[in-house]
Amino acid sequence: MRSHRTYPLFDLWRDADRLRRIVSAESLAVARVEPMLRQSNGFGVVDLTFVRSGEIAVVPFVHVEGAMLAEPERSPLVWPRAAADALDPATADAIEEKILPWLLANFLGRRLNDERLRTFDDAGGAIVERARAYGFLGASPYARVALAAAPYVYAMRLARGKRVAAIDDIGGAAGAAMLSFAADAVAASFGSDELDAFARAWYGDRFGIGPLGGSFDVAIGPAGAPLPAAPVRVTLRSERADAIPVARPIATDVLFSFDPEDSERAGAFDVVAPELALRRAIGGAAPAPVGGSAGRLLFVLRNDAARADDADGDDALALARRLRGEGFDVDLQLASAVGDLAGYDLVHGFTLTAAAEIGPVLARARAAGIPVVATAHLDDIVREGVWGAGISAGIHMVTTDDEVAVHMIALERRALEAENLHPKGQEPYAGYGDNVRGALASCDAILVSGAAEERLARESFGFAGWVAPVGPFVPVPDPAAEAGLGALVGDGDFVLAHGPIAARSNFIVLARAAMAADLPLVIAGPVVETGYAALLRELGDHRVVLLTTAGPDAVAALYRRARVFADIAWEDRGSARVAAAALGGAALLLAQTHYAVEAWRPGLWTADRAALGTVVEGLRGAWAGAGGAEAAACAARVAANADPVMTLAGVAGAYAKAQSLRPGG
After folding, report:
1. Sign of the alpha-carbon torsion through 226, 229, 234, 240
2. For the chain, what is the total number of helices (H) and then of strands (E)?
3. Overall pTM surpassing 0.90 (yes/no)
4. pLDDT digits (tens, 9 = 90+) for 597-624
5. Taking Cα atoms as reference points, which of 172, 173, 140 lies closest to residue 237?
6. Please, where are the H alpha helices in 442-529?
7. Engineered SS bond to 138: which of 58, 176, 352, 455, CB 3.0-4.6 Å?
8. Which residues of 537-547 are buried (b: 16+ CB within 10 A; e: fewer)?
């Protein structure tokens, strides 16, 4: 009996005694099958409703593997984890035997282009038809369920440890039930005793249903509904232009999304919550510029720096602001957009892992006699970064628990391979090493994070020029900026991860670890790889929040509210974000290979980015150590390393050295 953990919010029927008491082949009343897309590939899910002695149990979201129907090597059904844990294999086999002819007729007969229902019991069929009228989970298409439940799923981030009231929204009953995963208590009233009784019979005792009493922290309902007083209020079906949008659900790749770029806007809701006080940055105010400098500088960024912004781009932007304050003219351009270099006094490249893009610009500058400096951000991605980013996402393309578990063990042991991906080291593309060596050969000086990065530049890529270790540039956030975090993430502590939502960020492993550690995780960043984002959404539960459209003020505020900042990415893009988090008061969990570990330990926590168990323990350690003496001492070392006066002096020294090496310098 195989099982899966995808979209765990649908796994509402987790009472093992109830499932064992009601679920059997004989009590199966209705089966509903629906075709879906997963990672743009077709597959199906079946919902099963059981009725016994007036009691109802639903097993939704049972995966149907079409390939196993056509060429049966094993059971075509993959059960949700709670059902797999509660039911004995003989019961599952009997249910499968009962529905298999019907599944074969629909799948192999190529008739499955819309949902289909098969009624085995007329009385149970009448119950399911009524549930369909209300849009209940297990009886209705998933797009309809997800659209109605979306505001409740959003509200999970506001409801951790709270008392929640939901009212007058029978279509949102599934969402109210899902809220019970996060809230201390959920009470709901759907407008009549009859509706309340039916919702109670369908969803069981996941939440209280009936007249609302007592005080509440969060209240949800349509505009005009008699909601009880609560400091956090969610108003359904808002018409306001600035309301929180709900993307049209596409089962399963886009089900609960509040990013209008995922699909067209299909609804919206309002959230009102108290504003939160933010911790002040440890680093204090930015130093006053001295001024008096002059010169025209060109900063060259990787081509996807705007679309996939990361710590290297933050570093460049912060340095540009500092230099402009001193009197320099600084142009920032993507490598592919750089034209005539005439008139520039110095060219500064960023992130030499993108050497194929940046290298030709640096070579042109050198040929023109213009001084060239680079902030290397030169991670050894050939060692295992390319392999890890490529293979870790593929692990989660499979859905069954046993397969994922085996693959995760192999990942930790560096024993997992796929086509063109092996842990023995390979370049991201043919000629990568030559491109990096060529880019470095064009540089008069490079800036590195420390000794480890300098060794990589010299020993692996043959750089023989001038090297300066320089800390990251971290902008001081405006303490007066309005962030709206109360409505964005709630008022509790959380783990923060910030980066492009793509395989190289390793967010799926981080999310799995946060769920295993029972810690809330906020992932902020743009969606760069849509397939990876879809996997992350389907594997996350109420503890994982994705913020794909948060503005700069909100992101800065997240750094000043996070309890822990985690970066276990497969590629080190510099320490600007790690430093910003530490200066904002967060404890740090970093990949063992991150350059910041060498510079700032002890007082931070590390993990093997390929080993889920070490990430779990690292998160727990950082969470417990946040605010303690060790984390504070680490933050003090970060502040010294990222001192804005000293870092600027280091860059000025590199510029002067590069100038001295040019003719007439």
Report:
1. positive
2. 23, 25
3. yes
4. 999 999 999 999 999 999 999 999 999 9
5. 172
6. 451-455, 485-489, 507-517
7. 58
8. bbbbbbbbbbb
